[in-house]
Amino acid sequence: MGTFRPERREVMATERDLVVLGAGMHPWGKWGKNFVDYGLVAAKAALADADVAWRDIEFVAGADTIRNGYPGFVAGSTFSQAMGWTGAQISSSYAACASGAQAMQSARAQILAGFADVAMVIGADTTPKGFFAPVGGERKEDPDWQRFHLLGATNPAFFALNARRRIDVFGDTVEDFALVKVKNSKAGVANPYARFRKEFTLDDFAGSPIVSDPLRLLDICATSDGAAAVIICTPEYAMKKLGTLEGTVRIRAVANTTPTYPQIRLELPDIATDSNAVVQAPALGFKDSIAHNAYEQAGLGPEDVSCAEVYDLSTALELDWYENLGFCAEGEGARLVRDGVTALGGSKPVNASGGLASFGEAIPAQAIAQVCELTWQLQGRSDGHQVENAKVGLAINQGLFGHGSCTILSV
Amino acid sequence: MTTTERIPAVEGWFTTSEPYTLIGAKCTACGTVVFPPRSGSCPSPDCDGTDLEPTPLSRKGKVWSYTENHYAPPPPYVAADPFEPYALAAVELEAEGIVILGQVAKGVMAADLSIGQEVEVDLQVLYRDDEGVDHWIWTWAPSAPKGAR
């Protein structure tokens, strides 16, 4: 970790680096409305931001939600129908938390293959209250069903196993974890799309109940309703539209990565790791490899990143990402939050949006929301939570069942 | 031990009579081990093996990490009513090079655990169904008696 030395392709964007022409979101919250309603707001906002007509969209990449019935499973066509059928090409992608990034990849690949010039990437969700439970039905062969039924191993329990390792192996404290929430909540106050726009202090943690020791309720992200959409296109399309590519946000990498056998870190929703008794573990662990592959694609490294949006499903997990991204060596993540390095105004701001701590997760929309946030950061449009002189933005997350994703944008 | 037959909450993952062990699957071609047991294909990408045999795993391991749940998990977990917090431990089996999650024996809480501590496989009742039948699950139990630690 901390030693990424990708072979430099070019520091500047090339013609293969597509343009984010527009971004739009529906604010995050908890209203229990039809997820399509949220999606429509985000879609129209993204189109308006891009100044592109719905009829001109040639490809619609939907990120699926599995908790909203059939329309959620075919999100690409659901949103297309809601907006009014135009005969556009579509895809619908499910990759758990990485669904939005998978939809990004689908649209990007379609455009790079020459089958479309401009595409919409969209995801929206409506979430039930409380712990994420598996979808209904008795599915004895499903590892997700098994870990709930046989062990009661909730998502926070997995986050907590990881947090406990940080405490006992690296010497982190629960106060370090709390500092992540304090930092993110402070940034989120200024974000009009965030659900929780309240600044939390360390004192708030004392009264927060333990969910899965050592993590408290305030350490764990909520589930939310929300929607996000982006319009992406070829540089030629953007050139025709804008007359210049100067200042445009370019997509430098969208890397969706699986683990390499043997995967020796216990990850959601697995009951066990792979065995490394016969086959040696790879040099790069799974979460390191997610970032590494994106850096390779972009020809950029951690030192080039101006700001990052990482999946803080728990406060402690954010510290892991600092290390996986190469912002510091393994075990040093807590130092970055203690020293304010990753706060707004620090040298490596992380989750300037407020992160999941301020949003709560709207699964298929979240990775797209990360791209919206980075787009606005790179365009200098993040009033009140703007990262100064942001040039390169990175978003990273990890979907269940080995779906890692990392997106890098630059301006 | 009791002579009553113990119904496992999941078939084929652990023995239901002493000595209690977890049961993995071992590839007959390359020898790699996998838990939960599976069939059909070796998990190693470099092995063409399709024949996996049930294999008992080490009874003892070392705690890799642990936690304690303070809220009842949602179904399909069958939570006790009233809910009692319980600990979970991820345990590393050295010989197999594998970390396996399990509930910790009832009454042993997070405060009683530490990383690196030796634990071993035991069984306890996971839940009692509507017909009054107990369904058993493996647990991780501290190897040394409580007072001795």
In angstroms, what is the radius of gyration of chain B?
A: 16 Å
Number of helices of chain A: 14
Backbone CA Rg of chain A: 20 Å
How do the SSEs of chain B run, as a string of H and E?
Answer: EEEEEEEEE
Name the beta content range of chain B.
35-45%
Sheet with most strands of chain A: 9 strands, mixed
Beta strands of chain A, count: 11
Structural category of chain B is mainly beta
Secondary structure topology:
The complex is a heterodimer of chains A (411) and B (149).
Chain A: E1 19-29, H1 35-50, E2 59-63, H2 69-73, H3 75-83, E3 89-93, H4 99-112, E4 118-125, H5 143-151, H6 155-170, H7 174-188, H8 202-206, E5 210-212, E6 215-216, E7 225-233, H9 235-242, E8 249-257, H10 286-298, E9 307-310, H11 315-324, H12 333-338, H13 355-359, H14 363-378, E10 392-399, E11 403-410
Parallel strand pairs in A: 2-3, 2-4, 9-10
Antiparallel strand pairs in A: 1-7, 1-8, 4-7, 5-6, 8-11, 10-11
Helix pairs in contact in A: 1-3, 4-14, 7-11
Chain B: E1 7-8, E2 23-27, E3 33-34, E4 52-56, E5 60-69, E6 86-93, E7 98-104, E8 118-128, E9 134-142
Walkthrough of the structure:
The complex is a heterodimer of chains A (411) and B (149). Mean pLDDT of chain A is 95; it is low at 1-6. Chain A has 411 residues and is α/β, with parallel strands linked by helices. Helices cover 36% and strands 18% of the residues of chain A. Chain A has 14 helices and eleven strands. Chain B has strands at residues 7-8, 23-27, 33-34, 52-56, 60-69, 86-93, 98-104, 118-128, 134-142. The mean pLDDT of chain B is 93. With 149 residues, chain B is an all-beta fold. The interface between A and B is large, with 46 and 46 residues.
In short:
The complex is a heterodimer of chains A (411) and B (149). With 411 residues, chain A is of the alpha/beta class.
Which keywords apply here?
heterodimer, A: alpha/beta, 9-stranded mixed beta sheet, 14 helices, 11 strands, 36% helix, 18% strand, globular, B: 149 residues, 3-stranded antiparallel beta sheet, 40% strand
